Amino acid sequence: NAGVTQTPKFRILKIGQSMTLQCTQDMNHNYMYWYRQDPGMGLKLIYYSVGAGITDKGEVPNGYNVSRSTTEDFPLRLELAAPSQTSVYFCASSPRLAYEQYFGPGTRLTVT
Amino acid sequence: AQTVTQSQPEMSVQEAETVTLSCTYDTSESNYYLFWYKQPPSRQMILVIRQEAYKQQNATENRFSVNFQKAAKSFSLKISDSQLGDTAMYFCAFMILTGANNLFFGTGTRLTVIP
Fold this sequence. Notes:
The complex is a heterodimer. By secondary structure, chain A is an all-beta fold.
């Protein structure tokens, strides 16, 4: 099993550009999450999904969009990138409620 | 609001010694889980240990153990026989068992194990 994979590992965007961060898990987990980690801070929830076709906002959703068309994939879309979105982005998945979350290796995004 | 406070931004410990990392949290929920995650330089988030709030017994996992004081909302991590591979950022987090079940994280403690 590869677990949770994320692409790309690093990306530099110019202000106003858009991009999609990819997240795939091969563990057949229903629950998936996107977090961001700003320098010197803990992770904060952006969006989450409890199954294919179902998504909801977390603590810091502004400037992002998600979709969940399959159990495996949970892409995060950044529209009109801003410097405030410079961060490390982590995707995580979990098989059920009240259980450990498994994290991907993260994507470091810089917006200049 | 859910908050997690880690008051020690950095700590160091000699190899083979014991170190304790502090964590306090605030929530009005009565049912939740607590976690310690390790983040080495590779950036990968790795679960170290977890504690269910309804359990009085402190969790242990090999060299890692916790001191869970529910009334004080305190959840410290003890690392015994520290090894060089323990060098990492350590994040305390908790999960309320409603809604998204997402994790609320502290700001982390950077631990350095000195040879």
